[in-house]
Design goal:
heterodimer, A: about 800 residues, alpha+beta, three-stranded antiparallel beta sheet, 37 helices, 9 strands, B: about 190 residues, about 75% helix
Chain lengths: ~800, ~190
């Protein structure tokens, strides 16, 4: 047998050598070594029994063996493209991976961003799916103090990557040291950080890795002049208002989801909370601890628990139980004297309590106390027994869902989450403090209602009680119990309106929409307050869904004006409003500029939020519908595809928004005569809606009716007829007065005509079509589709003259 | 917070890091038991056709044991090496039990759910596993390090960087060892 190490060396050399040099290398070896190496090379190049075994037993290795043909060291680097970005230069390297400065490289628009490539790949499909899901939650964090997550995905080399807003600034500790800031300024900076953290906590996102290097501070441009102009409200009289930006929000959790790659688990022991080290439950209190460490370090120049000589295990053990020395003991010369010093000690030690339940209940509470300290007020210094509301809310939510007491309760909870999310537009405007307080009160009220659904609660309703009952209870209590809190009351009215809407109980939703708008008008009008704008938007969507178009339009126009005033013409908020305004304007009221407006809205969304943002997705969708129903099928197709791919990027496959895209797409395919695609899309929309909406909900009825029309085109009118009848009944029950109902009646007429019952079909088709025509214009896809059926009917009856105008209408010009 | 016996484990890990191979013998049963239990669970609950994710098992075992016993996390590398070996034993024991059962020897059968990994045709790979184990023993006599690289990668599901960390060698070396071992095993298993 040839010498093992000779064989091994030659094998390595040959594999590493370029193809052309291999022969030369082999000829230099002795014949037996050469034979052995050639034998091994054959086994190396083919897929052998060991590979098969590996693929069967170790999925990760399976990936590896199947990628054997890829060139070695194919990791992406400078100059390479990752997604739509090209890497420009490295910004740094951390525990999690490498960060590059990058720029968009797909010609859509230019913008420099920070692109973070994670060290390990996400191996399993499940891990990737979770990664995608989490990412879309994070993308919705929108706060000036949080670096925005713009995009993300899997790089060509298999590594996961994130694209974040590029931030120019110094780390928090360096900023304080280089400027030699005083205690008061340092406390103010931490207050600002805590406010940003509080914003994320309200959206149920925990940072998990707060430390000075993740907190950047930049001088805010323009703030200086304002300050010199005597702006009395400047938070930082001694400074030109610095702005903080938190990096990597929620990324740590995102990575923890990948159980197959814990190498990427992020932990900085000296900043980690005890529960992180012991594998306990991570919660918002974990971030309170992180903020406490940052505060402690900024005040004393030291970390609360310096790593000492003890073995690591003992040191970690100590973190579980010990409290750090008060800051005043560690750095007595740096801190103020007297009561104020004691208060600062108390704040630090409360935030750093080893028991999460004893810490500040929330980042907002910590910010509150810091603000009180700054203003010279007594600090709350209450025993930290009040549990953070949102946390309790979530805990209860889980229990209720697990208990499956009330079918449909998850829907209400989803809506509550939706309202919280809808506040993001207003977050910049309202002071974080006020908002946090309001959100807590709203949470408390809703929680008290949901307590009725909690099987563990004393006054629990019996299992099987429908969710409507619970919402109706709340509806009766809201004005009585929140009489003194108009802001909170408005918020709850709005949530209830959405809950009734979600349940398909439109008549009951109406008074709550009205109450919310009336309250907010009296609170804020004529100011363009974000809450008022939101209520206008939601109410107008609702009115429009019920067919009260002129009322909806006037609210929408007011909202657009307010948004322009509040956010400016190039703003995302303005674009959003533009989109909604146009998207909901009926065809006959759309002017010649409509298409240009929609393109403008899309351009703003792409420039402001990014071409892959959900906002851009909505822009594509609205434009696609506008083009599609007017016959511009090819371009519509392109925009639908973009809307779909963006939607799939951010949303779970069963998100009701995806149903909207597929339903509209199905209709446009139907108008184009592509029944097969129409069927595929409408089936998807139906599946989601059956899953997410209660029976006889208008959205379900719409999807059913569209499916029925597809069945009719498939030559199954007898199946289409009962479906259409049910859909019509469902819509009539909701007192909806929109074009959808006459369109369905005309569709029913077509289905009946196809079964040879011309007498019965005639009036349904003619009357339905007349109304559709009036509401949607002659150019609309539905008008032309239904006109074709009426022409068919007349022709079948031999009434050629009457058929002719409708045939012309059906074949009408592509654009009006 | 710490479960009884956690101190002992930490001690063993420290001892092992100091070069005391004997400590591995004390740790092995614990890790083995944990992995066996978890693998058993996974085999019971997974749908047919689902691959046994050894990598996930090993990492989950690490998390569980660390949580239960407060194992110092810097010893993760050492743990993974032990876990890879334990996982190998779990799988090989299953495969042997399977073979015994098929041949109908007098040995009482292991409950079937413990070893039914899923898809039909999977029995073949049980045989394949035993052959691999045998081949690895041969490889270990020629090149012990290569055999350990395969153990880590195949049975532990470790990535190249993890294997490097575990064995205290560079990722480039792991890659070369793995390339060679893979070719050698492909050939060996075809004989």
């Amino acid at each position: 047998m040839p010498d093992w190490s000779l064989v091994r060396t030659l094998f390595d050399d040959v594999i590493a050598a370029p193809e052309d040099d291999r022969e030369t290398l082999l000829t230099q070896a002795t014949p037996d070594v050469r034979r052995e190496v050639e034998d091994l090379l054959r086994a190396h190049e083919a897929r052998g029994k060991f590979d098969a075994l590996a693929e069967q037993w170790t999925p990760a290795l399976g990936d590896w063996t199947s990628s054997l043909t890829a060139p070695p060291d194919n990791l992406v680097g400078i100059g390479d493209r990752v997604g739509a970005y090209r890497l420009l230069r490295p910004l740094g390297q951390g525990g999690m991976g490498e960060v590059y400065l990058a720029t968009r490289d797909d010609g859509v628009f230019e913008r420099e961003v920070a692109l973070k490539l994670l060290r390990a790949g996400l191996v399993s499909p499940e891990a990737r799916a979770r990664f995608e899901q989490e990412r879309h939650v994070l993308a919705r964090l929108d706060h000036p103090g949080i670096a925005r997550l713009l995009d993300g995905g899997i790089a060509p080399d298999g590594r996961a990557y994130f694209v974040m807003e590029a931030v120019d600034g110094e780390s928090l500790d360096a900023y304080c040291e280089t400027r030699d800031l005083g205690v008061a300024d340092r406390v103010r900076l931490v207050t600002t950080v805590a406010e940003a953290v509080a914003h994320a906590h309200q959206r149920l996102v925990v940072h998990r890795d707060l430390k000075p290097s993740n907190i950047l501070v930049a001088e805010r441009e323009g703030a200086r002049e304002k300050g010199e102009g005597g702006g009395a409200s400047s938070l930082f009289p001694s400074l030109s208002a610095p702005s903080v930006k938190l990096l990597d929000f929620g990324i740590a959790r995102l990575l923890e989801n990948d159980t197959s790659a814990p190498a990427t688990r992020v932990l900085t022991p000296e900043y980690a909370a005890p529960e992180q080290l012991s594998g306990g439950t991570i919660s918002t209190a974990t971030d309170v601890y992180g903020l406490g460490v940052a505060l402690y370090e900024l005040l004393t120049g030291q970390r609360p628990f310096a790593r000492d000589d003890r073995p690591l295990t003992e040191w970690v053990e100590a973190l579980q139980h010990e409290r750090p020395p008060p800051p005043s003991e560690v750095a007595s010369d740096r801190l103020p004297r007297g009561l104020r010093r004691d208060d600062l000690d108390t704040i630090c030690l409360t935030a750093l309590d080893p028991d999460p339940a004893q810490r500040y209940a929330s980042a907002a509470a910590l910010a509150d106390d810091l603000r009180r300290w700054t203003d010279g007020l007594p600090i709350a210094a209450r025993p930290a027994t009040t549990r953070y509301l949102v946390r309790r809310f979530v805990a209860r939510h889980r229990r209720v869902v697990a208990g499956a007491v009330l079918a449909g309760l998850a829907l209400v909870l989803a809506l509550v989450g939706m309202t919280v999310q809808a506040q993001r537009a207003s977050a910049e405007a309202i002071r974080a403090q006020a908002e946090a307080r309001k959100a807590e009160q709203v949470g408390a009220f809703l929680e008290s209602i949901l307590a009725a659904a909690d099987p563990y609660s004393a006054d629990a309703v019996r299992p099987g009680v429908p969710v409507e009952t619970v919402v109706r209870q709340a509806s009766r209590r809201v004005d009585r119990e929140l009489a003194a809190e108009p802001e909170v009351r408005a918020e709850v009215h709005q949530t209830l309106a959405l809950a009734f809407e979600g349940l398909g109980l439109y008549p009951e939703a109406a008074p709550h929409h009205r109450a919310a708008l009336a309250l907010r008008d009296s609170l804020y009008a004529p100011a363009p307050h974000p809450d008022r704008i939101e209520t206008l938007d939601r109410y107008s969507v609702f009115l429009r869904a019920r067919g009260q178009v002129p009322a909806a339009d006037s609210l929408r126009a007011l909202s657009l004006a307010l948004r322009r005033e509040r956010f400016g013409e190039g703003s995302l908020q303005y674009a959003e409003s533009l989109n909604l305004l146009v998207g909901e304007t009926p065809m006959h009221r759309r002017g010649p500029h409509t298409e240009a407006l929609l393109r403008e809205a899309l351009a703003i969304a792409e420039a402001r939020a990014g071409p892959e943002s959900i906002e851009a997705g909505i822009g594509h969708h609205t434009l696609a519908v506008h083009l599609g129903v007017r016959g511009a099928t090819d371009e519509a197709e392109m925009h639908f595809r973009r809307a779909e791919s963006i939607g799939q990027k951010w949303l779970t496959p069963d998100d009701p928004l995806m149903a909207v895209v597929w339903q509209d797409w199905a209709a446009v395919r139907l108008f184009a005569g592509d029944i097969a695609q129409a069927e595929t899309y409408v089936r998807r929309a139906r599946t989601i809606r059956e899953d997410r909406f209660p029976p006889s909900h208008p959205s379900r009825a719409e999807a059913d009716a569209l499916y029925a029309v597809v069945l009719l085109e498939r030559g199954k009118p007898e199946e289409a007829e009962p479906l259409l009848r049910e859909a019509i009944t469902a819509l009539e029950a909701q007192a909806i007065d929109s074009w959808v109902l006459p369109a369905m009646r005309a569709g029913l007429g077509a289905a009946i005509a196809a079964q040879g019952r011309a007498e019965e079909a005639g009036p349904l088709l003619t009357e339905g079509l007349a109304e559709v025509r009036q509401r949607l214009t002659d150019a609309h896809g539905w008008t032309r589709y239904l006109a074709a059926h009426l022409a068919d009917l007349y022709e079948a009856q031999g009434r050629e003259a009457e058929a002719r105008p409708f045939r012309r209408l059906a074949n009408g010009p592509l654009t009006p | 917070m710490a479960a009884p016996g956690s101190h002992a484990i930490t001690e063993h890990l420290h001892a092992w890091r100091r070069g005391d191979e004997d400590a591995v013998r004390h740790l092995m049963p614990l890790v083995y038991e944990e992995l066996r239990r978890m693998a058993h669970q996974q085999l019971q609950h997974e749908r047919p056709g689902h691959t046994l994710d050894t990598s996930a098992l090993v990492h989950e075992a690490y998390d569980r044991l660390r949580r239960l016993h407060c194992i110092d996390w810097v010893d993760r590398a050492h743990f993974l090496a032990i876990a890879a070996r334990a996982m190998r034993r779990v799988l090989i024991n299953h495969a042997e039990a399977r073979r015994t059962q098929k041949r109908g020897s007098g040995v009482p059968p292991i409950p079937l759910e413990e070893i039914q990994v899923a898809a039909p045709g999977r029995e073949v790979s049980f045989e394949g596993l035993l052959a691999l184990d045998h081949a690895l023993q041969t490889l270990a006599t020629r090149d012990a390090r290569q055999a350990r690289v395969v153990e880590c990668r195949f049975f532990g599901g470790l990535t190249i960087p993890e294997t490097a960390e575990t064995l205290g060698i560079s990722p480039a070396t792991v890659k070369r060892d793995w390339e060679h071992a893979r070719a050698w095993l492909n050939r060996e298993l075809s004989r």
